[in-house]
Amino acid sequence: MKRTPHTAAVLALGAVLMAGISACSTESSAEADKIGVVEKLPTDPDQAKSKENAQEFRSWVNVHGTAQEKDAVGRVQRIIGEWNEKTGNAYISTDINGGKTQVEGPQAAATAIAKAFGDWKDSEQGYASVYDVFGNAMITNYKF
Questions:
Q1: pTM for the full predicted model
Q2: Is 2 left (phi over 0), alpha (psi -120 to 50) or beta?
Q3: What angle do CA 142, 111, 128 make, to 5 degrees?
Q4: Does the pLDDT value for residue 35 go beyond 70?
């Protein structure tokens, strides 16, 4: 299956719907499902580095991003993962509270964050996922 922003949006919608079902999970580490979607934010092995990644990302977007991206990336707390010019996975932790009544606003912010990350970093096979304040996936496997 070719991963496109449309595919990512459809997968994210499924993840958001499933998040309500799995919000009480006691799993301590995230694992990918059959198609590679990590529905819960992975454990952060280096919080100092992930906070530094987030600060570098916010700084870049403040110079190069759109108004919507600048507003959205203010919600980014940490960026976990590793990436380079060939491959990588980024797990973006935010303070977005998705909730069930305000899907459009939080989802639009998550999409803007994923798009801005794709503009910031470019890989042949890199994917970014955005997670809400509870560690539930909002956008998964956005290609960057």
A1: 0.73
A2: beta
A3: 30
A4: no
